[in-house]
Amino acid sequence: MSKHNDIRESVSKAYADAVNRPSQTPGLCCEPVQKGVVVKSAGYTNEELAALPADAVENSFGCGNPLAFSEVKAGEVVVDLGSGAGIDVIIAAKKVGETGRAIGIDMTDDMLDRARANIESAGVKNAEVRKGIIEALPIDDASVDWVISNCVINLSPDKAKVFAEIARVLKPGGKMLVSDIVAQDLPEDVLKDERLYCSCVSGAISEADYVQGLRDAGMESVEVRERIVYDESQLAAFIESEIPKEANAPSDASSCCATACCCGPTTDGPTSEALAATMQGKIWSAKVFAKKPA
Ligand SMILES: C[S@@+](CC[C@H](N)C(=O)[O-])C[C@H]1O[C@@H](n2cnc3c(N)ncnc32)[C@H](O)[C@@H]1O
Asked: How far apart are CA 278 and CA 126, in angstroms?
């Protein structure tokens, strides 16, 4: 249990750092980090992105658009697991309209603060974010029409619990659509690279394990509806959007990098380009659908 808490603490710190990092940091030791780049290949329409507060787009750390193809209807209740700076909560709130509700859950205070500010600036009144962990959701049993999530469950140290929580909070007949990173046959050194846990790589499970985990939790009609397969440059951008490209930092600048980087060692290891080359074809974003039996 305490190992799980340690992992969540590292992940939370990494994302607090990420949301507080300027998108361009000229003059700092780490190379400038381009936030908001990956979102452009994640499946949002230009109209959707243009209608959102710029901060919600810039601080999107997702790997898909979980609401695309979701058939969410007016009046429904949507819960977003790991809602970050609020991008999908705001889009969901607009889809369900005034008679519906969008609720984001996140464990990181800095993310919750940012999401609240973005919800307010988007002018949506039917959205809120709650502090909590996705392994024990602060949501009543059988109270939700849709569970969505964007690039979060791979970060959980206890995915079986998350799948069980999804099944618990959904109403009978309720549905789930989740965009997440899945992986197959990653090289041993990538799996062991602690920096890559927080950048959604080394905690990722296979599509088959994802589907089985949801079935074991009692969900039905489980299927992968879409895949985004990254090329090498997209993979490198993905890694860098979540952890800075510290490998090229000058050695006298390590203290700056140490505060901005992720779970593990920050000043050695392969570059993001080298990592991307070994990972290509072995890791992708999957949009997974499932339904709670009616
Ligand atoms: C990769 S970011 C994705 C954020 C958002 N879904 C998006 O698309 O921009 C992961 C987010 O999930 C949150 N998170 C990770 N693990 C969590 C857990 N076990 N419980 C609650 N929140 C978690 C982090 O705090 C962070 O905000």
From this structure: 44
CA 272 to chain centre: 19
Domains and CATH numbers, the chain: 2-291 (3.40.50.150)
First-residue to last-residue Cα distance in the chain: 33
The tens digit of pLDDT for each residue in 105-164 reads: 999 999 999 999 999 999 999 999 999 999 999 999 999 999 999 999 999 999 999 999
Cβ 238 vs Cβ 10: under 8 Å = no
Report the candidate in 91, 83, 88 with the shortest Cα–Cα distance to residue 108: 83
Residues 6+ positions from 81 with CB-CB distance below 8 Å: 105, 134, 137, 147, 148, 149, 152, 153, 162, 166, 178
Under DSSP, the state recorded for 35 is T
The alpha carbon of 83 and the centre of ligand 1 are apart by a number of angstroms equal to 6
| Pocket of ligand 1 from Cβ distances under 6 Å | 8, 11-12, 15, 60-62, 82-84, 87-88, 106-108, 111, 133-135, 150-152, 155-156, 200
* Closest Cα to atom 20 of ligand 1: 133
Q: What whole-number distance in Å separates Cα of residue 258 and Cα of residue 254?
A: 6
Pocket test of ligand 1: the residue of 106, 110, 154, 201 to mutate, having most ligand atoms within 8 Å of its CB, is 106
Residue whose Cα lies nearest atom 14 of ligand 1: it is 82
- pTM value? 0.89
Among 225, 134, 218, smallest CA distance to 174 is for 218
